[in-house]
Amino acid sequence: EKGPYRHFMLKEIHEQPDAVSRVVGRYIDRAERTLAQSPPLSFDFATLPRMTVSACGTAYLAGLVGKYWFESLARLPLDIDVASEFRYRQPPLQPGGLAMFISQSGETADTLAALRYCASNDQHIASVVNVAESTIARESGSVFPLLCGPEIGVASTKAFTAQLTTLACLSLVAAKERGTLPDGAFEKLIDALTALPAALSQALLASDDIAEIARGISKAKDVLFLGRGALYPIALEGALKLKEISYIHAEGYAAGELKHGPIALVDDTLPVIVIAPSDELTDKTVSNMQEVRARGGQIILITDPKGAAIHGSTAAQTVILPQVHSFIAPIVASVAIQLLAYHTAAMMGADVDQPRNLAKSVTVE
Ligand code: M6R
């Protein structure tokens, strides 16, 4: 079943171009360069006062990227929290809001409890799920399926990029209905999403370079991941993936937070992975990178050809991903952090598909 791959995780990483292509095909009419006709929703994006997202683990981090998209493109305020905190906090919810739940399995106990709390507080319920017949899907007014087939590896990969792609598409649906995008911007974002499957295929070609970098990472005791804007949740996901399967301690930070504490950790034994494809925030992130370098930290820069040409010399090692629109850059960068975690863990001989202490679906509280 693993085909030519050593682990399910590696197979699932390579299934991502197809998985996101199915999602894009569902929401986007490639020929007409517009949104596809989608089934009616149980809520109306145009009049929503706000949106609340709850999820756990990697699914939560997908939602965190979604916050950047929904707020900047659709001007829709989005509150997000991990389901295990949200459910016990008894947050006040404005009637008529949208509550969205993200879950690969659709059975995560805390996420389901958060859903039931929102359902009893006059919220429209929507879910982004992979398992279509799951409890979370059954209890939702609108279901956005991930269409990525069974995910076997405990470490979520293709479900994560399918979640991101679904949220990216939905943020465009919301932006269109709310009329928040300036002329011409909408088509550019549609084109960006249309280009996504090919960009992910190209990103996979960085696998050998990343395996080389993983050699050094596998000897580290701690690793720091930095990112800004919508790349910040990808830094968190990079740290989560690495911890989960290689058991190396890792932390993700917003690049701008570095000087507020974590910089104290930096010395010449600490690899610092900076996720900075070229965009309007790159210069700021690069100045954080220089602060790390000045203290002897080993920088691994994940960027694109433009970013590498300008800033590559600051880094000890560079991963070059395809040049894409900044809208989809977090999805493309996900492939790099997944491969980094994978190669590190595989090199260390870890049980990549069944990491210790973890279950695929967390149905206990
Ligand atoms: O099935 P779910 O998406 O609700 O699961 C949520 C988390 O348990 C899950 O994403 C977990 O963090 C993964 N093992 C991460 O790789």
Task: Record keyword descriptors for this entry.
repeat, 365 residues, five-stranded parallel beta sheet, aminotransferase, glutamine amidotransferase, alpha/beta
List the helices and strands and how they pair.
Layout: H1 8-14, H2 16-27, E1 28-29, E2 34-35, E3 51-55, H3 57-74, E4 78-82, H4 83-89, E5 98-103, H5 109-119, E6 124-129, H6 135-138, E7 142-145, H7 158-178, H8 185-194, H9 196-204, H10 207-217, E8 222-227, H11 232-246, E9 249-254, E10 271-275, H12 282-294, E11 298-303, H13 305-311, E12 317-320, H14 329-347
Parallel strand pairs: 3-4, 3-5, 5-6, 6-7, 8-9, 8-10, 10-11, 11-12
Antiparallel strand pairs: 1-2
Helix pairs in contact: 2-7, 2-9, 3-7, 3-11, 4-5, 7-8, 9-14, 10-14, 11-14
The structure holds 5-amino-5-deoxy-1-O-phosphono-D-mannitol.
The site of 5-amino-5-deoxy-1-O-phosphono-D-mannitol has 16 residues, from α3.
Describe the structure concisely.
This protein is an alpha/beta fold. The protein is 45% helix and 16% strand. It has helices at 8-14, 16-27, 57-74, 83-89, 109-119, 135-138, 158-178, 185-194, 196-204, 207-217, 232-246, 282-294, 305-311, 329-347, and strands at residues 28-29, 34-35, 51-55, 78-82, 98-103, 124-129, 142-145, 222-227, 249-254, 271-275, 298-303, 317-320.
Explain what the structure shows.
The protein has helices at residues 8-14, 16-27, 57-74, 83-89, 109-119, 135-138, 158-178, 185-194, 196-204, 207-217, 232-246, 282-294, 305-311, 329-347; strands spanning 28-29, 34-35, 51-55, 78-82, 98-103, 124-129, 142-145, 222-227, 249-254, 271-275, 298-303, 317-320. The chain has 365 residues and is an alpha/beta fold. The strands form three sheets. The protein has a five-stranded parallel sheet with strand order 4-3-5-6-7, sandwiched between helices. A five-stranded parallel sheet has the order 9-8-10-11-12, with helices on both faces. β8 (222-227), α11 and β9 (249-254) form a beta-alpha-beta unit. The protein is globular and about 55 Å long.
